[in-house]
Amino acid sequence: MPISESHVGRTYEPTPPYEVSTAKITEFARAIGDDNPAYFGESPVAPPTFLAIVAARAWDRMFDDEELGMALKRVVHGEQAFTHQRPLRPGDVIQATLTIDKVRVRGAMEFVTVTVTIATTAGEPVCHTTSTLVHSREAA
């Protein structure tokens, strides 16, 4: 059964814990070409989009759901927004939980809006990210 409006509200198990490190923050900042001094040194904070790494791990849960029949190779990332509760710091151990918020089907195209809630393993909210994914259904 392909994804449909009946899947709205489906929430997946949290991702395995991910420990944020100074090295990963520095690596990410360099990869995106951002030399903001806040991302370097002994007590850096992570760039705001660092959380996309963990959010993508939550997306894997949805793509692994055989009932939905979604494939990453047939997805265009339409949009994404982040709502930060606090900066991410080295030593934070975080998990991400994905919920399907909205599904619209238009012919062979499926517009899927998801929210990924990212929090520490102690339950402290860090960020919510909302994404719209455009999925094309393979021809029969």
What does this protein structure show overall?
There is one protein chain. The chain is α+β, with helices and mostly antiparallel strands. The chain has a single domain (5-19, 51-136), classed as Roll (Thiol Ester Dehydrase, Chain A). The chain contains 2 helices and 5 strands. It has helices spanning 22-31, 51-63; strands at 18-19, 75-84, 93-106, 109-120, 125-136. A 5-stranded antiparallel β-sheet has the order 1-3-4-5-2. The relative contact order is 0.25. The mean pLDDT is 94.
SSE map:
Layout: E1 18-19, H1 22-31, H2 51-63, E2 75-84, E3 93-106, E4 109-120, E5 125-136
Antiparallel strand pairs: 1-3, 2-5, 3-4, 4-5
User: What fraction of the residues are assigned to beta strands by DSSP?
Assistant: 35-45%
User: What number of structural domains do the residues give?
Assistant: 1
Number of helices: 2
In angstroms, what separates the terminal alpha carbons?
A: 13 Å
Query: Could you name the CATH topology?
Result: Thiol Ester Dehydrase, Chain A
CATH architecture: Roll
CATH class equals Alpha Beta
Given the helix and strand composition, which structural class is it? alpha+beta
CATH superfamily: Hotdog Thioesterase
Output the radius of gyration: 16 Å
